[in-house]
Design goal:
Blueprint: H1 13-16, E1 19-26, E2 33-41, E3 44-56, H2 76-89, E4 105-108, H3 115-123, E5 130-132, E6 137-140, E7 148-151, E8 159-164, E9 182-187, H4 204-209, E10 212-213, H5 219-231, E11 235-239, H6 241-244, H7 250-257, H8 260-265, E12 270-272, E13 296-300, E14 316-318, E15 323-331, H9 335-341, H10 349-357, E16 360-365, E17 368-373, E18 377-379, E19 389-392, E20 395-398, H11 422-439, H12 455-465, E21 469-470, E22 473-474, E23 490-492, E24 495-497, E25 536-541, E26 560-565, E27 568-578, E28 584-594, E29 597-598, E30 606-608, H13 611-618, E31 627-634, E32 640-649, E33 654-663, H14 665-668, E34 691-695
Protein name: Heterokaryon incompatibility domain-containing protein
Pfam families: HET
Domain Heterokaryon incompatibility: 183-354
C-alpha cells in the first residue's frame, strides 16, 4: 500500500497525493510476472515510471546471479567474460555460428545467377581460392584478408604498422611474408570532434614503413587496439575503416566499400564502440559494478491477477496461510533496446551492415559490455542470454523481440537453406523487409551512400533470395509487393510531423524506398506473390554503376519499371486540424476527379513520400489531372492499398511515385468508392480499363 494511504503513518497533504504504486500480474503465457510502477498525484495522471519482469526460477533452471567486481571496462574480469562468450560461440553449442575452421570450409555451390559474382570475387583478389570438391559444394581453401590491415604487434608496442595485402588490381601482394592469424574489425562513430586522422595518399608510405604512434590515434582506436591485443593470441590484425581505406581517393573508397561483405563476415569478431558518440570517447569507462548485479526475490503469488487458476512452475505453498512463494529473477525488458539498439553507434547506417555481417560482436556499452552472435544476445546484466521479450508502447510481448543477427542468410550452420525452397525465399524477403525498415532509420553523413552502405547485406541475402537486386528491392515473384512501402508520419507529442525528404542528387528511381530519406523510417508492404496483386510488372530497367561488385551498389539515372495497372485521376489536398493543445496538424486526403467535378468524398490514410518536397507540385492548379491512384493490392482484411503517382510525361506515359494510400474495407467494398465507379470483390474498378505505364 502506498505510504500516503497508510493510516498509521501520517504524511503531509502534498505527500498524500503524490505516490508511486506497484502492480503485479502474471502474463498470459505464464513465463513471467509483469511489475509496473506508476506515478500518481495531483499533477500526474497515472504516469508510467518503469516496467520490469519477474522470471520464475524453477527446479529445472539454476540460479546464475552474476556479480562483477571491476570498476572499469578495461579490467581482466571484462576481458575474461568476452573470451568466455567467444569460446562458447565457437563451440558445438552454437550450431549456427562459425567455428575455428571457418576459414577452411565447404559452402553451397552458387546458384547459376551468382556465377559471375563469385568469379568476380576471385578476380578482385579475395585470397579465397575457390575450387569444386567431389560433391556439389565449393571449398574455400585460403582465408580472406582485407586489402589493408594494421598489425597489432606485442601488447607493449607503442605503434601499429599498416600492411597492404593486395595491389590496386586486387592481386595478392608479395611485399610481405604470408599472413597468418585472424583479424578483428572496429565499429565506431566518427563524430564532430575535428579529428581527421585518416589514411591518405600522402601518409600511406609512412604508415607502412614507420608505423602509426598510438598516442597520435583517437582514444577509441587506442582502446580497440589494446583490447584486440589481449583478446586472443590468434588475433594478429585489426581493420579500422578510416585507417585502412584512403579517404581522399574516391576510386579506392568505392573499391573497398563494396568489399564490406567480405571484410566483416571473415573477421574473428567485431569490436563496437557502442556507447561512444565520437572517436575520442574511447571504449573503456568507469562504472559501479553493483548496478550489474543480478537480483532475485521471493514473491507471494497467491493473490496475483492471472489469466488462469493454474500455479506457475516452481510455486510452493508455505505453512497454513496458503501463501504461494515463487523465487524470481528481476528482468529489465528494455535493457537491450536502451544499451545496444538505441546507442549512438547503432544509429549509423554503415554500422548496421557491420553488425549483421560480422560473425560476432562485442559491444562496449554504457557501464558494461554486451555480446551478439547468431545464437545469443547477452550482456553483463544477463551473461547467459537476453530474454526474447519486448516492451513496446507499454505492451509486453513474450517471444516478441526480433534478434537482428537472425535475419541474415548464412553459409554455415544447420539452418542454411536452399534458395529454391519457396518458404525459405519468402521468409528471406520478409527478413529483408525487417532489415530495410531498420536501415531506413539510420543516419548517413553522405546521403549518396545509402545503397552502398547496404550492399554487403544485400550480397549476403542474395544466397537465399537468388534474384536480381534492384536499388534496394529484389526482382523476384514478390517484386510487385515490394513496391508497396510507405512513409508514416513521425509522432512527437502532441502531434505528427513529416520530416522525410528527397535527396538533392539522384540515388534511386521513385518506386524504390531508397529514393527517400525518412528519419522515422519506412514501412514495407506485406510480401505477396505477384498473382495476388492488382498490378503486374512487365519490365524492370535499372542499370548499376560500373564499379566492382556493382550489382549491389549505386544505380545509374534513368531507371524505370513498366507495370500493367488501372489508374484513376485524383487530387490531393492538405487539411489543417488543431490538436487538443491547439497546435497545427496537417492531414492529407485525396478525392476522385470525374470529368470537371470532384467526388465529394475525401479519403484519408494518405502517406506522402516527401510532403515538404512534393506537395506544392502535386496540389497546384496545373496538377489537377496529373495525380493518379493505382490500386495495387487488396489485403485479407479487405483494405485496398493503392500507389499515388504524378504523371511526368504522356509519351511515353511516365510517372513518379509520390505516396501510397490505404482505403479501408468499409469504403472499398461496402460503399461505392467513387460515385459511379465501384470496386469488385477483388479490389478492381469495374469501369476502368488497364494500361501499361512507366514509373521512373
Amino acid at each position: 500500500m502506498p505510504a500516503g494511504h497508510h493510516r498509521s503513518n501520517p504524511v503531509s497533504t502534498r505527500q498524500r497525493h503524490t505516490f508511486i504504486a506497484a502492480h503485479i500480474m502474471a502474463l498470459e503465457q505464464g513465463l513471467y510476472y509483469r511489475l509496473d510502477f506508476t506515478l500518481h498525484g495531483e499533477i500526474y495522471s497515472q504516469r508510467s515510471v518503469s516496467t520490469l519482469l519477474l522470471e520464475p526460477i524453477t527446479s529445472c533452471s539454476e540460479s546464475s546471479v552474476y556479480t562483477p567486481r571491476s570498476w572499469r571496462l578495461d579490467s581482466a574480469e571484462v576481458l575474461q567474460l568476452a573470451r568466455y562468450w567467444i569460446s562458447k560461440c565457437m563451440s558445438d553449442d552454437h550450431e549456427n555460428c562459425p567455428n575455428k575452421d571457418f576459414s577452411n570450409r565447404f559452402v553451397p555451390k552458387p546458384h547459376a545467377s551468382q556465377h559471375v559474382e563469385v568469379k568476380g570475387h576471385a578476380a578482385h583478389g579475395t585470397r579465397s581460392l575457390l575450387r569444386e570438391s567431389s560433391g556439389s559444394d565449393i571449398l574455400i581453401s585460403s582465408p580472406f584478408y582485407p586489402t589493408r590491415l594494421l598489425v597489432l604487434g606485442p601488447a607493449d608496442e607503442s605503434f601499429v604498422k599498416l600492411i597492404v595485402t593486395k595491389d590496386s588490381k586486387g592481386q595478392d601482394s608479395n611485399c610481405f611474408t604470408e599472413l597468418k592469424g585472424q583479424y578483428v574489425t572496429l565499429s565506431h562513430c566518427w563524430g564532430n570532434t575535428g579529428q581527421t586522422f585518416c589514411l591518405n595518399e600522402k601518409n600511406l608510405d609512412v604508415f607502412q614503413s614507420k608505423g602509426i604512434p598510438l598516442k597520435e590515434l583517437p582514444r577509441t582506436f587506442q582502446d580497440a587496439i589494446h583490447f584486440a591485443r589481449l583478446l586472443s593470441q590468434n588475433v594478429k590484425y585489426i581493420w579500422i575503416d578510416s585507417l585502412c581505406i584512403m579517404q581522399n581517393n574516391e576510386g579506392d573508397w568505392l573499391q573497398e566499400s563494396t568489399q564490406m561483405y567480405q571484410v566483416y563476415r571473415n573477421s574473428y569478431c567485431n569490436i563496437s564502440a557502442t556507447s561512444a558518440e565520437n572517436s575520442s570517447h574511447g571504449l573503456y569507462a568507469d562504472r559501479d559494478p553493483q548496478h550489474l548485479w543480478g537480483e532475485e526475490i521471493n514473491l507471494n503469488t497467491k493473490e496475483l491477477v492471472r489469466s488462469n487458476s493454474q500455479n506457475l512452475p516452481g510455486e510452493a505453498s508455505l505453512g497454513n496461510h496458503g501463501a504461494l512463494v515463487q523465487r524470481c529473477k528481476i528482468v529489465d525488458p528494455s535493457h537491450w533496446e536502451r544499451k545496444v539498439e538505441s546507442a549512438p553507434v547503432n544509429t549509423r547506417a554503415w554500422v548496421l551492415q557491420e553488425r549483421l555481417l560480422a560473425p560476432r560482436v562485442i559491444h562496449f556499452c554504457e557501464g558494461q559490455i554486451a555480446w551478439e552472435c547468431r545464437e545469443m544476445d547477452a550482456s553483463e546484466s544477463s551473461i547467459d542470454g537476453i530474454a526474447d521479450v519486448e516492451l513496446k508502447f507499454g505492451e509486453i510481448r513474450e517471444q516478441g523481440r526480433i534478434r537482428l543477427k537472425s535475419l541474415v542468410a548464412q553459409e554455415y550452420g544447420q539452418r542454411s537453406a536452399s534458395p529454391t525452397d519457396g518458404n525459405t525465399a519468402k521468409q528471406a524477403h520478409q527478413n529483408w523487409n525487417l532489415i530495410t525498415e531498420r536501415f531506413s532509420k539510420t543516419n548517413l553523413t553522405q546521403a549518396k551512400d545509402k545503397l552502398i552502405a547496404l550492399a554487403g547485406i544485400a550480397e549476403q541475402m542474395h544466397s537465399q533470395i537468388a534474384a536480381p537486386y534492384v536499388a534496394g528491392l529484389w526482382q523476384s515473384t514478390y517484386f510487385a509487393s515490394q513496391l508497396l512501402w510507405r512513409v508514416e508520419p513521425l509522432f512527437q507529442s502532441p502531434r505528427f510531423f513529416h520530416p522525410s525528404s528527397r535527396p538533392a542528387t539522384y540515388r534511386a528511381p521513385s518506386f524504390s524506398w531508397a529514393s527517400i530519406d525518412a528519419p522515422q523510417g519506412i514501412r514495407c508492404g506485406e510480401i505477396q506473390e505477384e498473382e495476388k496483386l492488382l498490378i503486374k510488372v512487365i519490365q524492370v530497367e535499372v542499370r548499376p554503376e560500373e564499379h566492382p561488385n556493382s550489382q549491389f551498389g549505386l544505380v545509374k539515372k534513368g531507371g524505370f519499371i513498366e507495370i500493367e495497372c488501372q489508374k484513376l485521376p485524383v487530387t490531393i489536398s492538405k487539411k489543417c486540424r488543431r490538436t487538443p493543445e491547439g497546435l497545427r496538424q496537417d492531414v492529407f486526403t485525396w478525392k476522385l476527379v470525374k470529368g470537371r467535378a470532384k467526388d465529394a468524398r475525401m479519403h484519408p490514410n494518405v502517406y506522402l513520400d516527401s510532403p515538404e518536397d512534393d506537395f506544392e507540385h502535386i496540389s497546384g492548379q496545373h496538377s489537377r489531372s496529373s495525380i493518379w491512384l493505382v490500386p495495387a493490392f487488396k489485403d485479407d482484411s479487405g483494405d485496398l492499398i493503392g500507389l499515388l503517382l504524378q504523371q511526368k510525361s504522356k509519351h511515353p506515359p511516365q510517372f513518379q511515385r509520390v505516396g501510397l494510400s490505404i482505403i479501408p474495407r468499409y469504403v472499398s467494398s461496402e460503399q461505392e468508392i467513387m460515385s459511379e465507379t465501384s470496386v469488385d470483390e477483388n479490389g478492381e474498378f469495374k469501369s476502368v480499363g488497364k494500361g501499361v505505364i512507366q514509373i521512373v
